[in-house]
Each structure stands twice: as structure tokens, then as C-alpha cells.
Amino acid sequence: MLPRIAIIGRPNVGKSTLFNRLAGRKLAIVNDTPGVTRDRKEVQARLGGRDVLLLDTAGLEEAPPDTVAGRMRASSEVAVRQADLVLFVIDAKAGVTPSDRAFAAWLRRQPAPVLLVANKTEGRGGGMAAMEAYELGLGDPVAISAEHGEGIADLHTTTAEMLPEEEDPEVRDRDRPLRLAIVGRPNAGKSTLLNALLGEERMITGPEPGLTRDAVAVQWEDAEGKVRLVDTAGMRKKARISEDLEQMSVASTIAALKEAEIAVLVLDALLGMDEQDLRIARLAEREGRAVVIAYNKWDAVEDRAAARQALEDTLQTSLAQLKGITVVAISAMTGKGVDRLMPAVRQVMERWNRRIPTGELNRWFEGAVAKHSPPLANGRRIKLRYATMPKARPPTIAIFGPRAEDLPEDYRRYLVNSFRETFDMPGVPIRLHCRGGKNPFVEE
């Protein structure tokens, strides 16, 4: 496993700005509103020539444990206990506060080494402001400006010196993780599901809708191997997206979906599947991602036969492009049924990643064309000659023949459904390209 570096500090001291700076790209939402980051966000980065896992955490605040702020602090404390190195960030402009002193005293009792980072030291007097940090008893502070990039080179060097010795990269990179995005409407139970899969309270949950504001990545392993889980902010209807923060959350969800391989769409079984859920599923399909439905809160459903039938009817009439989509009934809160989710995901992943040999593909193609000949286009016959599969992830078929590009939509759907049925690919998006000229996938 890569060494874990947790970025810790009070709200609004610049933790997410520093996270983005060290990650080399904008991953965490940055806003002047205190407490924007509510969950631990994780990304692989390179610091001082070392590959690391970088954790952006919620702000440390003194608050009762049953409040959102209290749950945020508990999440940050877990990150510290799991870290190989802690970057404790303070706002040098604001000076050392009583909260900084209290958290520094707590950090001195933790097993992980702590590197003190004095942020916002740009301009005149910045270096002098950082000197005040010595009183925290955490050693020499590294003076930086995360926003302007000042002092970042020194931070890289010092961080690399404080990390444990590097492990063998061949052992570390033995296999590549499955990239899985958990998507759905606000309050459907996405974060509760992620916590159930991990077996820990990684994500902050509660009755308040919209607690997760950012896409949060977590490295994990199931029985089959490595998984990169991404819990996303809930996507509301466009008319309800008004605040800047929420607009950024939706953009973060879409970006997470683009980077994923499989999407788990979490539905509230008490509410069923509505237009917003369909919109999310169609977005995943457009991006070429396979979808598995986690039908959550199943333990609270009274008429299960009716709920299942209602979902089936909606899927058949409104989501034909993902025909045969896998549905797993679960209760993320109690954990019931959650153990069946990842095996279903792995099965769908195998379909999504599957390549059909050219000979086998053309035997299917010839049979499908013989069973139903292509219709005439503008009174002229369409002659289909052969098919290739230029890529998987998602399965993509290219069909060649004179005027193949004129194939009507219903015949294209027939070919896709026939391919899906013949090669057992339910719930997987399938791409069909028709080419009337020469094969564009053959290199010159």
C-alpha cells in the first residue's frame, strides 16, 4: 500500500487548496464558505519523488458528536490514526488560535509523525508570521502559500524525508483497481452504502440531505482485488441547483462518472425510480459505463412484489439501452444484501470488459442478418458484409458494407439486442458503428 498523508487543520485554513496543489489538479471543491469539505477525499499523488495517497479531510472543530461538525471531526480523527504522515495546516495570517493549540496537543499524542504547515505566508511579513507556529511544539514549520504555489518545493522535500521507506513498486502495483462510482439522488443512502462496504464510518451520514458535497475516492479491496470507490454528491434536478456549491457538486459527480468503469446507482426503494434517477442512468450509459442498481432501504418496503414490478416496468419502458440491468436489493443501514453487491459488480465488469473473437462475432453477425435482412434505404438494398469489434470497455461493434451508414434506427436496435442476447451482456452499454466505406479501424 502507498504511504498515506492526511491534511488536517481548522476549517478554512486552506487544506483543500493545498490538496489540489499537491495533487496537481483541481479535485476538491474550494470555496470561501467554511466547512465545504465534509468527507475525506483521497487521491494518488507524487511528492518529493514518492508516490503517496493524499487525504483531504473535513475541518477540525470543537462540536458535539451528534452534530454534522462533530461527525466531520470524528472522520478526520480516523484519517489521522490511519495516516503515515500528518500535514497540520494553520493560517499564518490569522495567527495561532486556541483551537490550533488544542489540536496540536492532541496530535502530539498520536503515533503518526506530524509536519507543521504554515499556510498563507505570501507577501511581506509572511515568514515572520510563520515563526509564531513554533509555540505549537511540532518542530520547524514549513512556510507556504498553497494558493500562489510558494514554498511547495520545500514542502515536497520535507514530506519525502519524513515518510517511511518506499516499498517494492512491483509488489505495490501488482494489479490495477476496479474504478467504481456510487451515484444517485441526495439521501438515497450512497454514503451509508460506502460505509457498509468498507466496514467503517468513512463517510459522514445523517438525515440531512446533501451532506456529501464532493466526489470522494477511497482505495479498498474486496474478495477479488483492489477497488477504487468514489462516493459522489447527490444530483438534484436542474431547477433545484441554485447555490454555487451545489453546481460544483454536480460537476464533480459527472467528472467522477467519466473516470469510473462501473456505476452503482443507489435507489431509495421507498420512493422508486423517478426521472432524475433515469437521467443519471442515461448519463452513465452515454459515458459508456456499465450500471448496477442498488435498491436500497429494501428492509422498509412493505409490498416488495409491487416495488420490484414497478422498477421492472420503469426499466423496460425508459431504460432500454441498458436492457437486463442487474438489480441488487439491499439495506445499507443494516448491511443486509450488501454482500451480494460486489459479486454482481464484478460480473458486470467482466461483461463490460469482454472482447468477442472476430470469427465468433461474424458467425453471430451472419446469423442475425440471415434471420432478419436489412430493410431498403431510399429504395436501395443495404448489403452488410462483415463486423469487427475494435474495442471493449464498453463493447463496440463496427459493421461494414455499402450504404451501411443508412441503416435505420430500429434495425440497429435489433442488432444490438441480438448481440446482447447471444453473448450474454445484460446491463452493459453497447456501441454500434456502421461504415459504408473502408474499414476505419484497419491501419494503413
TrEMBL record:
Family: Belongs to the TRAFAC class TrmE-Era-EngA-EngB-Septin-like GTPase superfamily. EngA (Der) GTPase family.
Keyword flag Repeat: yes
GO molecular function ontology, one term from the record: GTP binding
Protein name: GTPase Der
Function according to Swiss-Prot or TrEMBL: GTPase that plays an essential role in the late steps of ribosome biogenesis.
GO biological process, one term: ribosome biogenesis
Protein origin, superkingdom: Bacteria
Pfam families: KH_dom-like, MMR_HSR1
Lineage: Bacteria, Pseudomonadati, Pseudomonadota, Alphaproteobacteria, Acetobacterales
